[in-house]
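Why does this matter for the project? Reviewers at the last site visit asked to see concrete outputs rather than summary tables. In response, this paragraph embeds two records directly. Each consists of the residue sequence and, immediately after it, the corresponding structure tokens. Nothing has been edited or filtered.
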Amino acid sequence: MEKVAIVILNWNGSKMLSEYLPSVLQYSKDEATVYVADNASTDGSLSMLRAHFPGVRLIELGINWGFAEGYNKALHQIDAEYYLLLNSDIEVTHHWLTPMIELLDSHQDIAACQPKLLSIFDKDMFEYAGASGGFLDRYGYPFCRGRLFETVERDGGQYDYQTDVFWATGAALMIRSKDYWAVGGLDGRFFAHNEEIDLCWRLRIRGRRIVCLPESYIYHVGGGTLPKGNPMKTFLNFRNNLTMLYKCLPEEDLKSVMRWRWWLDYLAAWEMLILKRNVGDFKAVFKARRAFKHWRKDFEADRKAIQEGRATKQIPERRNFSLLWQYYVKGRKQFSMLP
């Protein structure tokens, strides 16, 4: 069994790999084995990797399984104590792995951790996808130390302390393999978006800890395959977020939260249409609500199993307030301003 397997899931990311894989190899080769799992790319990624990065181990998945199931398929083929799921558009830094390895080695109650995520375009700014660790509000809206909705903070060291978080970013997620498989891995039905939050929530329900370790820091391009404002991204975010809530919310919160989300989702849709004149995203929200309604029954067994395995009802990192209210009504645009 290997100690650490860094696994980069790739789909037509030859350019990103060419630019950022060298830093991963330079600063990780002594502590980890680097894998690239390819989701049936058509841009020459595999031939480029074979020609220029012979030290990287390749996993050819054959078809595009998406982010969630692609990782499941790849990780089934890797025997390692720790997995590190890493995006292809990440530039890592010297000594980035050691603090996370030492953390997991010394704290058996921690299932997963993430480094601090900064923007590659402005290295003094947090990056949207995970910043300095993720949280969740009462109604299922994710936010981070360093990012609330679209407001991203400048990194002045204000969150440079280790803390428990609700979710760790899928852009750079280090997780014990035994914990990953104990909860069934990423939910492949999600395809992409919210899948790492769903995974971390299932771990937290079992009493396992998730930690952000800002001592380790990396730089992220962000945006991924689907840029912001793409209707498919909007659809996946809304559908998957509702599904995650249905699976993981405790029984006493389920009906209330889902009723509120009905109103809030349609309010968001009309805001997209009237204020932003974005017809695609407007339609995507309605489509996502319908899709969730149609496939909710497919997750009944999941919900039952998750609730039966619950070790704790109260998860402190799921904050008992409305982020929408705090942000838009109270004007609190920074994590440190939240109650």
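We now turn to the second protein, recorded in exactly the same manner.
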Amino acid sequence: MTESPSASATEAPAACHVMAKPTGSVCNIDCKYCFYLEKEKLYPEKEKNWRMSDEVLELYVRQYIEAQDVPAVNFAWQGGEPTLMGVDFYRRAVELQAEYADGKEITNAFQTNGILLDDEWGEFLAAEDFLVGLSVDGPRQLHDRYRVDRGQKPTFDRVMAGLEILKKHSVEFNTLTVLHNSNAEHPLEVYRFLKEMGSGFMQFIPIVERRAQTVPDDVLELVGPEFDGRAKVSNWSVGSLQYGRFLCKVFDEWVREDVGKYFVQIFDVSLGSWMGQDASLCIFAETCGNALIIEHNGDLYSCDHFVYPEYDLGNVREQTIREMVASPEQRKFGSDKRDSLPAFCRECDYRFACNGGCPKHRFEKTPQGEDGLNYLCKGYKLYFSHVAPYMEVMADQLQRRLPAANVMEWVRERDRDRVAAKRQPGRNDPCPCGSGRKYKHCCAVTAGAPA
């Protein structure tokens, strides 16, 4: 997929999102579930050259801004671990952004494990108004289940120290929580902990990976959905119904106590879908192909979850980002998300909110034996069916220009009615109307109950 595309064959979208990985897969910790660490096999020279060069950085910044026909451009920095590049790398990035901005508003988001954050980082991130995503999987015992350092030691305390740096310097942050087979069993414990640590916006990312049963040492072990050899879901992956139950439990607390106070990405995206909007999250959009990643050496890939040789679109030294995003290969990658949807999904009541989910997870068969069903389908159906009544109420409130948080009062009233229905007083109990008479001599008569 590295042949030069015909710029006239297709048109570039008005905007695209390219997440930068300036260290590639190089990281200072060794998360057991990480799908990106093994990408180092794609770059054997990484031991000697793993940093994004100033040349590639400048090409990326200039081309990325030029590829946007919109007034605001968001840069996202991830890894690996982006703090390994040091603060000066990002100072240079900000200088280049200012140089090539051409009147566009520039913002930056930064995803980190938080371990290397110190006062220098805090001062820089605050001064340049970076939004920081902090990776944390819940309280200590759940976070440390898989998020360990290179010496296999827990990282929780060091992440919390990084959090304190962000708070000390008033850096805006949110949290990214990977849901795996362990922490997904403790939804309220995870959710309440994130609230306690001050996370106002939460992302819950389900980890689902398949491991090939037999592969050479230099071949990627975690395979894509098109892999037709022997592979099975990894033991750390979240279960489909386990994921759905996690979301339902968190939602039940959120919709009763926290609407408008705390924001959970998937709940916000779902509400948008119930209001008839296009999904703002790529996994639930009808098509994709506008969210790519750039590796440390300038290689551009179709998607963060498709960093495989066959999805390498080219290099910014040889082609522009706009050209590669508009290439027939990338446009087909995006439209295949819609065009390959099995009939089982096309006929689903929740297609409008799901659209088959991420193509990376479409490796199951439908009940009719058709390929392309999302591994998380059962979990998604459980979640969408559970939240549907609440989403309808919130959507109605917003369409009437009222706060979505009004749903909490609606829920409280419904809960009270349900409790009351379950607690009908006994014949000799005091009547709940407050008359002072026994129930059998009061409201039971008007209710038609036997005296």
